[in-house]
Task: inverse folding
């Protein structure tokens, strides 16, 4: 049951069929992005906005008439990269003083005077909820005001090397209501705000009409979707509505929080045609005391039980998770709990991070007492474990048949993913970009599969 009537889809023209609002104006934009998929989606939105008013994309900042940096501060290493990039751009800005230099993403705080002091050559700071601020440096954008939410987080790249408009990210909920003790995201992205149900369904319809075959719904807590909307629609209901869109082949969502991973969502995944059998469920640690100090609000058993239920409903489901090693006070025994949990669960993908204190968060007040070398050792230990697990999981895929959605070319080969999100490469002389191709796995490695295409691509 939908909470709200969906706007008739026929009223929306595919993006290809819709000319940009202004003809090309000869100006070029350069966007630099680091961080999570949400940042990539936000950058795609900025690109779409600029294209609507006549700008074209360039991959060379020297050529640009406007430069936008989309920043990440989730760990110190990311923040350092952004600062480095900003400092590098000071020279370009001296050569081209009229070229607006814009900073967005999670480095942008409410105290923009401080940022301005640190980076005086930046013309505009805007946080990711304030896209309309871009008008200050690109006045033509004011004509998009009423349509900003309906403008897809997507643009047709101008036949970039190997890239395609085959897959797209669609944010469905912004912000985060949790306060995990290590995490800066809630301070920079604010409270959870779900996008209206109909806007999302319409955006996906437009993307599909423009040729997109796989959509990934995004949120820091994507499975909390809808609790703040009238009628409180759920993620399961949204998946069901999107699944009905003709032409969509694959539907994914990330990142989920274990606390909100109800049976309804897993049942929807199991039952829907497009929903991929792939679960992204960050656990962060395998020890209950560490989880408690991380303020994660669940236990190791909760997470393991959710994975077990996922596998019960979808025996072939692949699992991805996130882990932080070296959290303040993490003992060797507590770390080994994480090791043990990963060994038992056998995830397909683990995103590992060494703990990095973030100013303003709760855990930053605690001593960062695990030395870097020890964090590194724990990181290496889990990486080695994961390599063994992935080697084993993938070796069992030898000779198996999978359907691959071809996303591009890399090193002279076609490259794509299975529904389970495993990377597959294969040789084929045909033009296969955006096609679904059946393949037989001919060689395996821990990180990707090699394959031979069979049958007719569609
Ligand atoms: N909303 C997601 C994660 C968002 S942050 C969740 O609930 O899991 C993305 C990842 O960065 C996290 O999963 C975590 O593994 C890592 N991360 C976040 N803060 C970190 C910190 N202070 N130090 C190291 N890694 C961190
Ligand atoms: Fe950060 Fe926790 Fe929110 Fe994820 S759920 S974004 S880790 S505060």
Result:
């Amino acid at each position: 049951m939908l909470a709200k009537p969906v706007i008739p889809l026929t009223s929306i023209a595919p993006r290809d069929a819709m000319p940009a609002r202004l003809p090309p104006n000869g100006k070029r934009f350069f966007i630099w992005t680091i961080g999570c998929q949400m940042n990539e989606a936000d950058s795609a939105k900025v690109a779409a906005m600029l294209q609507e008013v006549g700008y074209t994309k360039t991959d060379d900042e020297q050529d640009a008439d406007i430069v936008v940096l989309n920043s990440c501060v989730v760990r110190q290493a990311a923040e350092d990269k952004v600062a480095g990039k900003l400092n590098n751009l000071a020279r370009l800005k001296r050569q081209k003083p009229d070229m607006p230099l814009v900073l967005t993403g999670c480095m942008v705080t409410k105290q923009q005077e401080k940022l301005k002091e640190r980076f005086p050559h930046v013309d505009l700071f805007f946080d990711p909820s304030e896209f309309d601020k871009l008008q200050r440096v690109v006045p033509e954008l004011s004509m998009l005001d009423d349509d900003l939410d309906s403008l897809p987080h997507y643009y047709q790249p101008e036949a970039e090397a190997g890239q395609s408009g085959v897959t797209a990210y669609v944010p469905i909920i912004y912000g985060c209501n949790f306060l995990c003790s290590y995490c800066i995201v809630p301070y920079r992205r604010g409270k959870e705000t779900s996008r209206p149900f109909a806007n999302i369904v319409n955006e996906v319809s437009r993307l599909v009409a423009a040729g997109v075959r796989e959509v990934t719904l995004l949120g820091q807590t994507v499975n909390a979707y809808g609790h703040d909307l009238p009628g409180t629609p759920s993620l399961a209901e949204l998946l069901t509505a999107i699944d009905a869109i003709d032409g969509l082949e694959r539907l994914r969502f990330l990142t989920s929080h274990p606390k909100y991973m109800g049976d309804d969502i897993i049942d929807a995944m199991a039952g829907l045609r497009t929903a991929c059998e792939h679960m992204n469920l960050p656990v962060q640690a395998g020890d209950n005391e560490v989880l408690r100090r991380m303020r994660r609000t669940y236990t190791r058993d909760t997470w393991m039980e959710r994975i077990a239920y996922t596998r019960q409903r979808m025996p072939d489901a692949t699992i991805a998770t996130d882990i932080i090693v070296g959290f303040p006070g993490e003992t060797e025994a507590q770390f080994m709990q994480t090791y043990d949990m990963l060994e038992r669960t056998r995830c397909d993908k683990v995103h590992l991070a060494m703990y990095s204190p973030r100013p303003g968060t709760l855990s930053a007040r605690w001593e960062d007492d695990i030395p870097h070398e020890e964090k590194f050792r724990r990181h290496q230990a889990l990486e080695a474990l994961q390599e063994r697990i992935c080697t084993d999981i993938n070796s069992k895929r030898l000779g198996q048949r999978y359907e691959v959605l071809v996303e591009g070319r890399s090193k002279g080969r076609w490259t794509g993913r299975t529904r389970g999100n495993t990377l597959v490469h294969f040789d084929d002389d045909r033009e296969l970009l955006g096609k679904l191709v059946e393949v037989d796995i001919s060689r395996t490695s821990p990180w990707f599969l090699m394959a031979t295409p069979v049958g007719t691509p569609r």
Q: What stands out?
A: The first strand starts at residue 28 and ends at 33. DSSP finds eleven helices and 18 strands in the chain. The pocket of S-adenosyl-L-homocysteine (ligand 1) is lined by residues 74-75, 182-183, 185, 220-221, 255, 257, 282, 284, 322, 324, 353, 355-356, 358 (CB under 6 Å).
